[in-house]
Amino acid sequence: MINFKSTMIQDDEIITSLKKSIQLKEVCQEILRQRIIQQAAQERGISITAEEVQTEADKLRYEQNLVKASDTLAWLTDQLITPDEWEAGIRDRLLSKKLSELLFAKEVAKFFVEKQLDFDQVLLYRIIVPYAQLAQEICYQIQEGEISFYQAAHLYDIDERRRYHCGCEGKVYRWNLKPDIAAIVFSARTGDVIGPFTIDQTSHLLMVEEFIPAELTNVRYQEILNKIFKEWLDAELNYMLHS
């Protein structure tokens, strides 16, 4: 039973709501994943100290701007959890992090090397217009120096956000593009007009402003580690459910 702002909500009501919103399966799977993590950690002698929990709690309080103890208690109350439950959640996340490091830290660099091309990025600009004839005319104007790619995007693109940003799509991974288009984009020269292409009944012009070679940064290291760990965890869950 949960007391939500002086209104009592029964446990079976929560379960029924999860079923109605088709979320119960995922909640149950998450519980089983945590069991797998706890068992694997125990088998490998991994534990979390009170000091580690405190350090992480202090970090989270700083991120939430919870300066006073009373601020933290008020925030936890609003989240419908107790301090002990909050610390238990922190402990679970730290345990997961330690286990993933122990199991797969050495695999990250290997994975990155094997998939390095996929992590290459471009700073991409795009113009989308409704007709191929218009796209071709814009392309000619840009090539003849009558207008810049940025000006054309600002004037002609069908999307308001992209017009405002003069066609800027931002940093785009190779896998974000269709394979045939990715091959052309990543072999183009910066500043060249690429296209037009017909995609979903609209015409596209592309331009690469910058090529960004893949680097194994701390952020990317963590992304890869999380991916490998999740795949392992899902495989363990599948084995548990079907063994």
From TrEMBL:
Catalytic activity from the UniProt record: [protein]-peptidylproline (omega=180) = [protein]-peptidylproline (omega=0)
Record-given protein name: peptidylprolyl isomerase
Taxonomy, superkingdom: Bacteria
A Gene Ontology molecular function term of the record: peptidyl-prolyl cis-trans isomerase activity
PANTHER family membership: FOLDASE PROTEIN PRSA (PTHR47245:SF1), PEPTIDYLPROLYL ISOMERASE (PTHR47245)
Residue stretches making up the PpiC domain: 119-210
Record keywords, A-Z: Isomerase, Rotamase, Signal
Organism ancestry: Bacteria, Bacillati, Cyanobacteriota, Cyanophyceae, Nostocales
Enzyme Commission number(s) of this protein: 5.2.1.8
Database matches in InterPro entries: PPIase_dom_sf, PPIase_PpiC, PrsA_foldase, Trigger_fact/SurA_dom_sf
Pfam families reported in the protein's UniProt record: Rotamase
PROSITE patterns listed in its UniProt record: PPIC_PPIASE_2
